């Protein structure tokens, strides 16, 4: 008996050792890297149709000269140069500015899992709505990593979109911050605001990401003092103050499709109670939709227009909640670009939870009503002059880097925006919000050559935005073959054992992730 037990124990130990060696080997396994295309001093796009995203006008059969990373000439006659030049045949094609995704979340694995898909889908600029505290995180990235990516983009050493407007970590009150982090990140009282702003100013952060449970008094002081540091506020509308207050106190952008639903019904003050707002919301979603006050919503939308506050509805998140019970939605072909770790540990839980809720109330699914109500409010806000920016909320459940931006464009048109207005939300409007419209957001002489070459006209059908012939990023041309390579690269990375191990360990080691899940 003892011999059998010893043998069994040896087998168990051997298996454990083998598992440890395998996991360690996978974690340490070197990851392959993508090489960007060769850059040319000069590039000419011949005979292309240029879409003016501000007016909707099309200049047909134009010739575009790009020198290094900027557009230097646009003419209706052929451009001839004597030096070695890359010639792109634009006959029958439509040229638009590079697309922007203004609500994303990047991490330490974005180089393999997100960046290639952004560029393959014509997304040349993104705003990352996450960050770090005072230490480098094993999962989330911060301003230093993103700014380094930008430098390597400009020197053509890295395949990456441009990261605009650097974000802090999400400020969500004491419970959202690890216990051993400096106290000022917890923002328990207004006296900590200056320390927070001083820290993020040194980190070259452009905005503080505000979140739901930030105390009202602290938020007000943060809003009052941020501008003095050259920093603005963007993110969620904190639950414990009114949307009117947040707008008047200067928050520059508001995220997600629920902001007016939370605010414009008779019992909205019940959502501002720090002790039980979550319980109230879970049992009152239907009431929130049914008792929506359109008059109040329009007043708030007019105020947003007056105060130049922008809205990023991220309809993809509500679309997921509304469709989580449908196989036609969840059997998405783009799942091949997502690691099994994320699908099993994150997305499956989210999907099962929303599926169960939806199936309990078939025929009267509240999440479907939320989704449809939010789309109506997008149309309403757009008509009243609220600047709409496109955002997808990568890496939320069933939000796919690059691909979901085209889905969001479509949903915006389904909400009532014209095809042109949808394109504006992904080009010139975010460029203006970022105060860099002199360099980005439209196809003009002097601007950076972040461009997308389409096979068909997106003004006729917004789904034509997906029919991409080529992408120019800082003047470097990604042709059809290269775009295919980018997708295949991410598909291979997402399915690999070593990338899944790296993702799992980085999640496990991240104190920010642990606090996030605990909350």
From TrEMBL:
InterPro entries for this protein: Amidohydro-rel, Metal-dep_hydrolase_composite, Metal_Hydrolase, Metallo-dep_Hydrolase
Positions of the Amidohydrolase-related domain: 220-475
Key words, A-Z: Membrane, Transmembrane, Transmembrane helix
Transmembrane segments: 7-29
Keyword DNA repair recorded: no
Gene3D superfamilies the record matches: Amidohydrolase, Urease, subunit C, domain 1
Protein name, as recorded: Amidohydrolase family protein
Organism: Halomarinibacterium sedimenti
């Amino acid at each position: 008996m003892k011999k059998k037990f010893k043998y069994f124990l040896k087998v168990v130990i051997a298996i454990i050792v083998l598992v440890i060696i395998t996991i360690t080997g996978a974690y340490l396994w070197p990851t392959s890297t993508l090489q960007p295309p060769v850059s040319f001093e000069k590039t000419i796009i011949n005979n292309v149709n240029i879409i003016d995203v501000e007016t909707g006008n099309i200049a047909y059969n134009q010739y575009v000269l790009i020198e290094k990373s900027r557009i230097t000439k646009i003419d209706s006659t052929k451009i001839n140069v004597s030096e070695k030049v890359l010639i792109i045949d634009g006959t029958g094609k439509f040229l638009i500015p590079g697309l922007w995704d203004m609500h994303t979340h990047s991490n330490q694995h974005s180089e393999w899992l997100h960046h290639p898909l952004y560029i393959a889908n014509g997304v040349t600029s993104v705003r990352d709505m996450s960050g770090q505290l005072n230490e480098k995180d094993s999962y989330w990235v911060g301003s230093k990593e993103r700014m380094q990516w930008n430098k390597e983009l400009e020197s053509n050493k890295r395949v990456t979109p441009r990261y605009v407007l650097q974000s802090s970590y999400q400020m969500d009150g004491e419970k959202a911050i690890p216990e051993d982090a400096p106290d000022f990140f917890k923002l328990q009282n207004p006296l900590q605001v200056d320390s927070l702003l001083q820290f993020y100013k040194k980190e070259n952060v452009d905005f503080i990401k505000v979140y739901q449970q930030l105390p009202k008094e602290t938020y007000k002081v943060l809003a009052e003092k941020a501008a003095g540091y050259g920093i603005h506020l963007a993110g969620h509308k904190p639950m414990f103050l009114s949307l009117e207050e947040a707008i008047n106190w200067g928050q520059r952008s508001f995220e997600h499709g629920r902001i007016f639903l939370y605010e414009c019904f008779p019992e909205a003050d019940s959502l501002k109670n720090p002790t039980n707002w979550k319980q109230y919301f879970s049992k009152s979603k239907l009431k929130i939709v049914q008792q929506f006050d359109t008059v109040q919503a329009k007043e708030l939308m007019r105020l947003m227009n007056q105060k130049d506050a922008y809205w990023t509805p991220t309809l993809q998140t509500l679309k997921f909640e509304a469709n989580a019970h449908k196989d036609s939605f969840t059997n998405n072909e783009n799942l091949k670009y997502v690691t099994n770790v994320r699908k099993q540990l994150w997305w499956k839980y989210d999907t099962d939870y929303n599926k169960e809720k939806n199936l309990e109330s078939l025929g009267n699914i509240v999440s479907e009503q939320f989704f449809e109500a939010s789309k109506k409010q997008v149309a309403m806000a757009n008509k009243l002059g609220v600047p709409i920016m496109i955002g997808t909320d990568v890496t939320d459940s069933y939000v796919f880097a690059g691909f979901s931006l085209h889905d969001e464009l479509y949903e915006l048109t389904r909400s009532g925006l014209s095809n042109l207005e949808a394109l504006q939300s992904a080009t010139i409007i975010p460029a203006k919000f970022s105060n860099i419209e002199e360099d980005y957001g439209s196809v003009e002489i002097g601007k950076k050559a972040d461009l997308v070459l389409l096979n068909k006209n997106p003004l006729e059908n917004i789904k034509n935005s997906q029919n991409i012939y080529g992408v120019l990023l800082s003047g470097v041309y990604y042709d059809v073959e290269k775009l295919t390579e980018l997708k295949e690269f991410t598909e291979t990375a997402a399915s690999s054992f070593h990338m899944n191990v790296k993702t799992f360990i980085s999640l496990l080691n991240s104190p920010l992730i642990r606090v996030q899940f605990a909350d």
